[in-house]
Amino acid sequence: MDFLQPMQESYPEDFSCIIEQLIVLAAFHEHERGDELSSFFNVLCEDTYYEVMLEGAYSVFENTQIGKVEEDDGFEEIYQLSDPITTRFFSLCRRYEKLLKIKSEQNPFLQRVDTKVNRYLGNGMTYDSELRGHLKKPKSCRIIFRTSAEFRHNADVVLAFFDMLDFVQSETEDLEKALTALLEQRTEKIEERMAA
Questions:
Q1: Where are the alpha helices (DSSP H) in 43-154?
Q2: N or C: less crowded end of the chain, CB within 10 Å?
Q3: Which residues of 32-63 are buried (b: 16+ CB within 10 A; e: fewer)?
């Protein structure tokens, strides 16, 4: 997961830091989020890089809770990420599973999101992530992102958060269409039985 590799090889480090900050701020603008980051537009420099990335990581999801766990080599941070988009997705997953009488492991929408979370934010040297929660309580479902003491926020993580959120939004739209089709099929069957 290194969206910015070509850029990092092309420019001096201080210039790359400014470009990465602009890319992250543009992503916030595109997603109409992170108004608190707009103050950074006036002072983009190498010194503000980690501040922008840290604030960015806190601001992608509407609800970000951060906890710290003490480890032998320092503190591990645990981000619990949720958003109205993710809450709606998990709620629709529950309806889909109830309609089809299937388990979460059989839900292709949920499995695709789980795979995406693990692919984009799993198994890093200084971080990993997972989906956590129970669909009986969609509001309790979260994306968990854990970082080790050596972790430093960077543009790749912030952009991966946006990529995940966009993917969940896309899967939510597909899931809504699937649910509509299932409900239409059920209605047709009921109407056929009544007409017989």
A1: 49-59, 84-100, 108-121
A2: C
A3: ebbeebeebeeebeeebbeebbebbbbbbbee
Extended strands (E) in 21-176: 63-71, 74-82, 127-132, 142-147
pLDDT tens string 33-74: 877 676 666 677 777 788 888 888 888 999 988 888 776 666
As a whole number of angstroms, the distance between CA 146 and CA 130 comes to 9
Backbone angles phi, psi at 144, to 5 degrees: -100, 130
**Domains of the chain: which residue ranges?**
5-183
In the block, residue with structure tokens 């040297």: 125
151-171: pLDDT as tens digits: 777 888 889 899 989 999 999
Maximum C-alpha span of the chain: 76
